[in-house]
Design goal:
The complex is a heterodimer of chains A (about 475) and B (about 500).
Chain A lengths: L8 E7 L9 H14 L4 E10 L13 E3 L6 E6 L2 E2 L4 E2 H18 L3 E4 L8 H9 L4 E5 L27 H7 L5 H15 L4 E4 L2 H10 L6 E3 L23 E5 L8 H13 L6 E5 L8 H13 L3 E5 L6 H6 L3 E4 L9 H8 L4 E4 L2 H6 L6 E4 L4 H13 L3 H7 L7 H13 L17 H4 L8 H5 L14 H5 L1
Parallel strand pairs in A: 1-2, 1-7, 2-4, 7-8, 8-9, 9-10, 11-12, 11-14, 12-13, 14-15, 15-16
Antiparallel strand pairs in A: 3-4, 5-6
Helix pairs in contact in A: 1-14, 2-3, 4-5, 7-8, 7-12
Chain B lengths: L5 H7 L1 H8 L6 H9 L9 H6 L10 H7 L3 E6 L51 E5 L10 E4 L7 E8 L2 H12 L2 H8 L6 H15 L4 E5 L8 E7 L3 H13 L6 E7 L5 H15 L2 E6 L6 H11 L4 E5 L3 E3 L4 H11 L4 E8 L5 E3 L2 E5 L6 E4 L7 E2 L11 E5 H6 L14 H11 L3 E12 L1 H4 L5 H26 L29
Parallel strand pairs in B: 6-7, 6-9, 7-8, 11-17
Antiparallel strand pairs in B: 1-2, 1-4, 3-4, 5-8, 9-16, 10-17, 11-16, 12-13, 13-14, 14-15
Classes of the chains: A alpha/beta (about 475), B alpha+beta (about 500).
Chain lengths: ~475, ~500
């Protein structure tokens, strides 16, 4: 039985993973927001996370679709067997498990359904939510560009790893030569059609917001709300670094190619070559096994070669304060655009300056020369220059650290969500035009028009039409 | 029936090979029919010829066989190989070991048939299966081995097996896949197999029992429109199609008839149909037939089951143009005359138009005027009268469709010329064929992953039938500079215009 406390509002938050099971920024941010709502007097909050059975096969029996997670009253896992990353489709769901999900949603009857992702759970869940809870407000937080870009939602070209500034069916087909532009065209329409169910989108960075406006979302349909963070581990302003030399750089994040670990390793090597050896790069993170073989090999060699590189493996969230305290500078060298990297917030929470790539969400969150330093994305020499400056410029750390901004608290994020999305009284702004073609308006008919309209409508050949070659038509 | 193996013929007759190479003869067959036959030269390996005859030496009588349909049949076939799609005369019982004949089949390769290179080998599961009538006593029960002729010829395995009509139908898929079948029409030479296959297929289709009907959702009396949707084996594509069709509209008083012609799983297919009913509020009827034999038969059956006054046939590659598609379709349906056949603007992903196998550039932003690409023909004012419309979308009154006998079931396999044939018959019956620019759909083949369907295998057979029937009309249109309802030029046709399906469809 689902608990049904008598609270005026009921929220269901849906994420692609439970952070207990698979760590990552988007699910962490979604979960923290859920916890923020769960703490409210007037909200009854539930969390439903996708859980691919191959990751934790023992948590969800084969014949069960949704299970309670870890004995918690309001957290659930949705078993996922078959995930189609191209169509963002949970094909098992469409095959038969939709009945269970529909039953779950109907039993819960949330007033607000907040999607933190559709990976794993499937984009079809948007339609199921609409069918099961037609009166619920559907809110969708966008964490990267998966709906726009099939290349892991990163908008990075697959062939030369260059940054991509816009999607088109032909450009996408160039990145995936085994797929026809038709397929990207239909993928786009398929996603846009499902997005018509969404009342309000949330963008955690203005950069990402603009990308989605360019893609076709209307300004009224999307709002900017940064990630709100739980207060655990937030350092008070003025917290001193652990080292007097301020020569310890930290990398915290997933150890996959797009995070720019490659660039960081090269920059460290460059510094050593320049004769600067008195520094440390402390690397914390998981998922190295998902990195390319070239990166895995290069990273292993570099750690062995350079004593400055220290690898500590993966970490849990509760360990963050300890790790951040042992770092003077955070480095965020991602070679994709990023959205609103949690690691930047974590750095600022610990009052540490950030060295970051000069693109996308990173460049938005960090101010060059104020609370951090930019370097050219993917450019090891540029990063090495920035690191050298950190090691040699007197007073730089104190100045940048003093300017680190306050990070949005989860309580503030909760308030913003209530005000801008969840309890906004404005009529449902369904972006129904999202998936329409440019010609749609010209052929639109209104109720009451009849078949004679076609013949009756004035017909005029366009100026570009050549009468000499098409005189038969003019004769008719 | 005349069988001819060009490569074998040239190998056996080096003088002819030299003459063909020097351009004295257009092809080996050209030589054979002009003088080779009279000189007593064999058209193909006698051992191969023997395989395609009954014990008494007479050719196969497949019509008779299919009429009786039960009994012991000798299956002769060949298996397509992934590397070389033209491995012939290798028998493969289902699940049995394959015989590697790669070394031996090169002689069956036809370098004069260019399109074989475009064949996607992975699409062939089975090769040719013919059936020979004969009681068990005349055929051994066990497998036998037959050596062709000389040492260089492959060893064959023939197998005797008992099959019923359903099994027979089951094997026709493979039969239609025969590359020799494809090749025989491609160069205008009938090697004999084409007619065997077509006759067998048609005979079996006529025997096929009524399909299993499955209805879900509340029964709807007199729906406004019956949409007939062909569901491919890949249900995921069908889900996307129906989701897009349904996402922005209310099906209301619309009935959907799903036709599955060879579902991978009946359970999955019916579960899919049920989900459409529940998730999209549609009244659905579904039926499935076991084998993908005949598009026309399946769609005629669907029309028999449909209850709407108007039918909308939608192909599996058709996706809606915008959110108003259904409203506009209903407006068009309400205004059409009882003898109208209406097609849609079928758009490519770049918003150009594809209709009747021809690509057009849209000149007028209201999609009313298109200009054919790369063809020296007149543009089409699409709101006007057309000669035919694609099978992807056809809007027609049910009673008119029934009166005309529906799609002609003499066209076999997947859809290729049935729709054009139907349009011409509608025209003969004083109906009007139109493309209405208010009906706008996208016709996207890649996402539907049709692959190399039966269509490509039966295309030559159906094209020949179409050209036989409508060649004179096509000539008239071509001479008038009109766009023909297919990109294929009329060729190799014989005989006068025939009108198919002389009687109306029998309704349940």
């Amino acid at each position: 039985m689902l608990r049904r406390p008598a609270k005026p509002k009921r929220l269901l938050s849906i994420a692609h993973f439970h952070p207990d099971i698979y760590r990552g920024g988007a699910q962490q941010a979604g979960y923290e927001l859920f916890k923020g709502f769960d703490a409210l007097e007037d909200y009854d909050a539930f969390f439903l996370a996708g859980s691919p059975r191959h990751i934790q096969p023992n948590l969800i029996p084969r014949d069960v679709t949704i299970v309670r997670h870890d004995g918690r009253a309001n957290e659930f896992l949705l078993g996922v067997d078959t995930w189609d990353s191209f169509w963002l489709s949970n094909t098992g769901l469409s095959g038969g498990e939709w009945r269970d999900v529909l039953g779950f949603l109907r039993a819960l009857q949330p007033d607000i359904i907040h999607f933190n992702h559709v990976i794993n759970t499937g984009i079809e869940l948007l339609h199921l939510a609409q069918v099961a809870c037609p009166k619920a407000r559907i809110v969708y937080t966008l964490h990267e560009f998966v709906p726009i870009c099939h290349a892991n939602g990163q908008m990075v070209r697959t062939r030369r790893q260059g940054l991509c500034d816009r999607a088109s069916w032909s450009r996408c087909a160039m990145c995936f030569p085994d797929r026809h532009p038709d397929e990207f065209f239909l993928r786009d329409r398929w996603i846009r059609a499902h997005f018509t169910h969404v009342d309000r989108f949330v963008a955690p960075s203005r950069f990402l917001l603009q990308r989605y406006l360019d893609w076709g979302l209307a300004e009224d349909d999307i709002v900017f709300i940064d990630y709100g963070r739980l207060a655990d581990g937030r350092a008070p302003r003025g917290t001193p670094p652990a080292s007097e030399q301020r020569n310890r750089f930290g990398f915290l994040g997933q150890l996959i190619d797009c995070k720019g670990l490659d660039c960081l390793v090269d920059a460290a090597a460059l510094l050593v070559k320049r004769g600067i050896a008195e520094f440390e790069v402390r690397i914390h993170g998981a998922n190295l096994e998902l990195a390319s073989e070239a990166l895995q090999s290069k990273f292993a060699d570099a750690v062995e070669t350079y004593s400055q590189l220290k690898f500590f493996g993966s970490y849990f969230n509760y360990e963050l304060p300890r790790h951040t305290a042992a770092v003077d500078w955070f480095v965020v060298p991602s070679v994709w655009w990023e959205n609103s990297p949690l690691v930047i917030q974590e750095a600022f929470m610990a009052r540490r300056p950030v060295l970051c790539s000069n693109i996308g969400g990173m460049a938005e969150k960090v101010r060059d020369g104020i609370d951090g330093l930019y370097f050219a994305a993917g450019d090891a020499a540029s990063l090495a220059d920035a690191m050298a400056r950190c090691l040699t410029e007197p007073g730089l750390w104190d100045r940048l650290a003093a300017n680190t901004p306050d990070v949005l608290a989860v309580e503030e994020a909760v308030e913003q969500h209530r005000k801008l999305c969840f309890e906004n009284d404005s009529p449902k702004a369904r972006p129904r035009q999202l998936w329409e073609a440019s010609w749609a308006d010209s052929v639109r008919i209104t109720a009451g028009s009849d078949a004679a309209e076609l013949e009756a409508a004035p017909f005029r050949l366009p100026d570009s039409f050549s009468a000499s070659t098409h005189d038969w038509l003019l004769d008719s | 029936m005349e069988l001819f193996d060009a490569e074998w013929y040239l190998e056996q007759n080096p003088d002819v090979k030299k003459a063909v190479r020097n351009g004295l003869w257009a092809s080996a067959y050209d030589h054979f029919k002009t003088c080779g036959r009279a000189e007593g030269r064999a058209p193909l390996d006698p051992a191969v010829a023997q395989l395609l005859q009954q014990p008494n030496g007479t050719p196969l009588n497949v019509e008779e066989l299919a009429a009786s349909a039960e009994g012991t049949c000798l299956l002769i076939g060949w298996v397509d190989d992934r590397v070389d799609p033209i491995i012939e005369f290798a028998m493969q019982p289902y699940g049995g070991p394959q015989i590697d004949l790669k070394q031996h089949i090169r002689r069956f390769r036809r370098p004069d048939v260019a399109d074989i290179k475009r064949v996607r080998p992975e699409s062939f599961d089975f090769g040719f299966w013919a059936a020979v009538q004969g009681p068990p006593a005349t055929r051994p029960e066990a497998s036998i081995r037959v050596r062709f002729a000389s040492n260089r010829v492959a060893e064959l395995q023939l197998q005797t097996t008992t099959i019923g009509p359903i099994d027979l139908r089951d094997r026709i898929l493979g039969l239609l896949a025969s590359p020799r079948n494809r090749a025989s029409r491609a160069d205008g030479v009938d090697h004999g197999l084409t007619r065997v296959l077509a006759a067998l297929t048609r005979a079996v289709i006529k025997q096929a029992p009524a399909p299993a009907l499955w209805r879900c959702g509340a029964h709807m009396a007199e729906p406004e429109l019956s949409i007939i949707i062909s569901v491919p084996r890949d249900l995921e594509n069908a889900r996307r199609q129906i989701a897009l069709l349904a996402m922005a509209c209310d099906f209301g008083r619309i009935e959907i008839v799903f036709v599955s012609r060879s579902p991978a799983s009946l359970d999955d297919f019916f579960a899919f149909v049920e989900s459409v009913g529940e998730l999209y509020g549609a009244s659905t009827v579904a039926f499935a037939i076991g084998e993908d034999l005949n598009w026309a038969r399946a769609h005629n059956d669907a029309a028999r089951l449909a209850e709407g006054r108007t039918l909308l046939f939608l192909g599996s590659t058709i996706f809606p143009g915008d959110r108003d598609w259904l409203g506009r379709t209903l407006v068009v349906a309400a205004g059409m005359r009882d003898s109208d056949v209406v097609g849609a603007c079928l758009l490519n992903e770049d918003d150009s138009v594809r209709q009747c196998g021809i690509d057009f550039t849209v000149i007028d932003r209201r999609l009313r005027i298109w200009e054919a690409r790369r063809r020296p023909v007149r543009p089409v004012w699409c709101a006007g009268i057309a000669h035919a419309v694609s099978a992807g979308t056809i809007l027609v009154r049910r009673h008119f469709f029934v009166e005309l006998g529906g799609f002609d079931e003499d066209y076999i396999g997947d859809c290729s010329y049935e729709a054009y044939d139907f349009c011409f018959r509608a025209w003969v019956a004083e109906g009007a064929v139109k493309v209405d620019p208010r009906l706008i759909f996208y016709d996207l083949h890649a996402p539907a992953q049709l692959g190399d369907s039966v269509s490509s295998r039966t295309m030559p057979i159906n094209r020949a039938l179409y050209n036989d029937r409508w060649g004179d009309v096509l000539d008239l249109l071509a001479n008038a500079g009109e766009i023909l309802p297919t990109a294929a030029a009329p060729a190799n046709r014989a005989g006068p215009l025939e009108i198919a399906n002389t009687g109306p469809l029998e309704l349940p």
